[in-house]
Automatic annotation (TrEMBL):
<feature type="transmembrane region" description="Helical">
    <location>
        <begin position="146"/>
        <end position="166"/>
    </location>
</feature>
<dbReference type="GO" id="GO:0016020">
    <property type="term" value="C:membrane"/>
</dbReference>
<keyword id="KW-0597">Phosphoprotein</keyword>
<dbReference type="GO" id="GO:0000155">
    <property type="term" value="F:phosphorelay sensor kinase activity"/>
</dbReference>
<dbReference type="GO" id="GO:0046983">
    <property type="term" value="F:protein dimerization activity"/>
</dbReference>
<keyword id="KW-0418">Kinase</keyword>
<keyword id="KW-1133">Transmembrane helix</keyword>
<feature type="region of interest" description="Disordered">
    <location>
        <begin position="403"/>
        <end position="472"/>
    </location>
</feature>
<feature type="transmembrane region" description="Helical">
    <location>
        <begin position="15"/>
        <end position="31"/>
    </location>
</feature>
<dbReference type="Pfam" id="PF07730">
    <property type="entry name" value="HisKA_3"/>
</dbReference>
<feature type="compositionally biased region" description="Basic and acidic residues">
    <location>
        <begin position="330"/>
        <end position="341"/>
    </location>
</feature>
<keyword id="KW-0067">ATP-binding</keyword>
<feature type="domain" description="Histidine kinase/HSP90-like ATPase">
    <location>
        <begin position="296"/>
        <end position="427"/>
    </location>
</feature>
<dbReference type="Pfam" id="PF02518">
    <property type="entry name" value="HATPase_c"/>
</dbReference>
<dbReference type="InterPro" id="IPR050482">
    <property type="entry name" value="Sensor_HK_TwoCompSys"/>
</dbReference>
<feature type="transmembrane region" description="Helical">
    <location>
        <begin position="116"/>
        <end position="134"/>
    </location>
</feature>
<dbReference type="InterPro" id="IPR036890">
    <property type="entry name" value="HATPase_C_sf"/>
</dbReference>
Amino acid sequence: MDVIPEFRSRPRHEQLALILASCGVLSLLIIEGSATGWAPTVVATVLTGALCMTALVVLPRRFPLVAGVAVAASFTLTVVTLTLTHRPVLTPGLVEQCALLLIVTRGVRLLSPLRAIALAIPTGLTAGLLPLRLAESEWGLATEFLGYGALFGLTLACLLGAYLRLLDSVRAREREADRTAQRLEYARELHDFVAHHITAIVAQSKAVRFTMAAGQTPTPDELDALLGRIEEAGSQAMDSMRGMVSVLRDPAIPAATRPGDDLSGLRELTGPFEGTGTRVELAVDPRLPGRVLPPGMGGTVQRVVREALTNVRKHAAGATRVTVDVRLHEGPMSDEGRTVDAGDGGSDGTAGSAGRTIGGGDGDGGEVRVTVVDDGRSRNRPGSGSGTGFGLLGLRERVETMGGTLTAGPSPALDGWEVSARLPLPPSFAPGAADTTDTDTTDTGDRHQGEPARPSGPDTADPGDELRPWTP
């Protein structure tokens, strides 16, 4: 039967408890059946009672059929018993009567309203007529008491079934909400990582085509280097896909493609731009690399940069310059999401204020500002109007969970496009007194130890950070 696999899947102690309970119920059925003193009625009483109990444990898809057969058998036995001289003396079958009421409960819980009503009416009638199996000498107060008890029990059974049905509905909605949230998480993961690498492949492939179309034939070494970068981007896309598949197969396995909680991966994000004709300048506040950030903030910073660079490839074909600036600012955030920073004068972060601000946050321990600006002339950017870009939509949700704001819009600085995020720091992570300098430096990645930090900015960036246009 279908109940066997379900039984085997349960723990040992539950299996033992079910076996003992079944033996106890079967013993009660035999005791009640033996009250008639006649073998045929004993067997019939045990069989109908066992059939009613079986309807309570079968799988839901088999329940309507088994329940209908059990109710019909019980009603038939009651009618036949009225014509016999050997009738129960002490009990008409209380175990069977309780099982019939529980059938009503399960029917209300599992079946549609119409089918539940169609099952509850004959089942309640059968349970109410069950006391008529008693000998006529026992009729009177006993049958009246059992009859009213069955009616009251039928009401309780219907209410219990409706309550369990409501609980099942609430649990189903919660599970669906969890699945929806999980699907959105997977969609964001796919967009953040796989789409980023695929876009890099497309951009670098276009660079080869444009170079060939211009009549410039690359040397074998140059062509091999460019194809190697395409191959690397493809390998990274495959690794991202494998990481997502591993998460889908086993939720206990963390995605290998998730960014870390530090800023060590920022330089790797600018690598795919090499050879595409776009110069990338990366500036990181020198106080950030060695600072402990709140959980998730480092990954959010990397996602902002990744999404902005991906949109540059997709929507700013004419962009020749991209600046990535990550800074640490002291002071509380205002209601507009700006930081009141002594010495800042409010000049930083005002670029792109004409754009669309997404989300909002509050904090009194300073903030981390991430700004990505390009000089592309394309205005068909996600976030410029209704905000239908799936990448920025998911990014907005991540920034909002950190209590920050996300701004996307035209940039007056480079006459292009700017994506800016502001992530507030809690007081426990605020810049301490030891951080007295407010000088930003360009992260070069190969600066010698002890070399003084260079000021940041597009005109002072280290040449090692610039991915120059590829020419043969």
